[in-house]
Specification:
There is one protein chain. The chain contains four helices and eleven strands. It has helices spanning 4-13, 54-57, 348-351, 378-407; strands spanning 23-25, 73-77, 80-86, 130-135, 149-154, 162-166, 179-185, 197-207, 267-268, 277-278, 281-282. A hairpin with a 2-residue loop joins β10 (277-278) and β11 (281-282). The chain is globular and about 50 Å long. 43% of the residues are buried.
């Protein structure tokens, strides 16, 4: 007769590893069969990405775990593709690639039976929206961050397991060997620590395809209250909150997201076949090295018009953009460990290096230099700066306490 402890252990082995995090699950993805023990750290597809070197966050460090030959996710141009987003592979139709067996439920929730905080949400609107991007290259090793262009977003994902993403009509067919796609997500800041999600997968384009290529992309901009500040045309994905390779430097409590706040529609991306513009001005961005995150070489996405480069705020010291704070890129070996700031026992000093100060919103008018009353004196500036720093330190301390508490959960 089995003891009760053995029965419990056997039962636990078949239960899904509820992580409170989400990934896309498809046979065409990189890292589909990665488990909790594949790496020297938990690098399952659902694990969030923050404070990492480029090699650790790019494609989730899963490039050594490609999909099986011939596995692609088809994107029907002018139609829609249904993808599954979940906090555990056992809840999905590719459960057989996971260690816990078939745990599919009748519910269509991404994390059935779990509180909404399992997907960093207080309600369905808190999930903030996720996106699918495409790169017109067949060899994943040739793909660079700037090659990806967002083609579709879904505002209420990843709340549900099954999600229909609308694919733009006229999207060109892929080259021989297919395209490389990726799913991206950044959630609201009010339910869990700040992070981003990225899972790559092989894809093809069928249906109502076209021959006009996607235009030169820019970066989406915070523009909900100022529509004229929106980027029109193709945009790159959001790379945020890492030690290296960021193209956005928003602060901890103002994350960039794939929704109306940054001008993303709910559905297929429009105006893909033109170069990106803002107010009629070209909004394309310069290509930067994946390991160069200095403020001088990385675009500031939300606080300055492309026509006024002088208005771009320099990334503050201690932010991900401060190259002096970023360690050298590490090897992408499957057994390598992530930087110290991604480990649950990270100290405040280790984690604080990835917390950036939010750039000034674009809809706040700049005080007129001709108005003496709008120009603070030196002593006033000093006082305000001290007060601001004190508030920032207090906010950071609270944030770190929440993060360590959150990440200390059992995956």
């Amino acid at each position: 007769m089995f003891s009760s402890s053995l029965l419990l252990a056997a039962s636990a082995a078949t239960l899904p590893l509820v992580a409170g995090h989400v990934a896309i699950f498809t046979e065409s993805m990189w890292g589909l069969s990665v488990t909790q023990t594949t790496f020297s750290y938990d690098n399952r597809a659902v694990v969030p990405l923050y404070g990492m070197t480029f090699d650790h966050w790019w494609f989730h460090n899963h490039l050594a775990y490609p999909p099986a030959a011939g596995k692609f996710t088809d994107l029907p141009a002018g139609g829609s593709v249904t993808v599954q987003l979940s906090c555990d592979i056992g809840y999905t139709d590719v459960w057989q690639y996971g260690p816990g067996g078939d745990n599919r439920q009748s519910s269509d929730l991404a994390c059935p039976g779990q509180p909404s905080t399992a997907i960093h949400a207080n309600d369905i609107n808190d999930v903030a929206g996720s996106a699918i991007a495409i790169a017109y290259k067949s060899d994943v090793n040739d793909v660079k961050p700037e090659d990806f262009v967002i083609i579709s977003t879904k505002r209420q994902s990843p709340w549900y397991l099954n999600n229909d993403f609308q694919i733009p009509a006229g999207l060109p067919a892929c080259p021989e060997g297919g395209c490389i796609c990726a799913w991206f997500w950044i959630h609201e800041p009010d339910s869990g620590s700040e992070q981003m999600y990225m899972n790559g997968f092989r894809c093809t384009v069928s249906g109502n395809t076209g021959t006009v290529p996607i235009g030169k992309p820019g970066l989406a901009r915070r523009c909900q209250d100022v529509p004229s500040n929106c980027t029109v045309g193709p945009v790159n994905p959001i790379y945020w909150y890492q030690l290296e390779g960021n193209n956005y430097f928003e602060g901890t409590y103002s994350p960039p997201m794939y929704n109306e706040v940054y001008g993303f529609p709910d559905g297929a991306m429009p105006n893909l076949f033109q170069d990106a513009t803002v107010g009629g001005t070209p909004a394309t961005v310069a290509t930067a090295s994946s390991t160069d995150v200095s403020a001088s070489s990385s675009p500031a996405a939300t606080s300055a018009s492309p026509a006024d480069a002088s208005a771009s705020p320099a990334a503050p010291s201690g932010s991900p953009a401060d190259a002096s704070e970023s360690p050298a890129a590490t090897s992408a070996s499957p057994t390598s460990s992530p930087p110290a700031s991604t480990v649950d026992t990270a100290s405040a000093s280790e984690t604080s290096a990835v917390v950036a100060v939010a750039p000034a919103p674009t809809d706040i008018p700049t005080p007129s230099s001709s108005d003496p009353s709008s120009t603070p004196t030196a002593s006033t500036k000093k006082c305000k700066r001290r007060s601001s720093n004190k508030r920032r330190r207090s906010a950071l301390k609270n944030h770190l306490q929440k993060r360590l508490s959150h990440d200390g959960r059992t995956f």
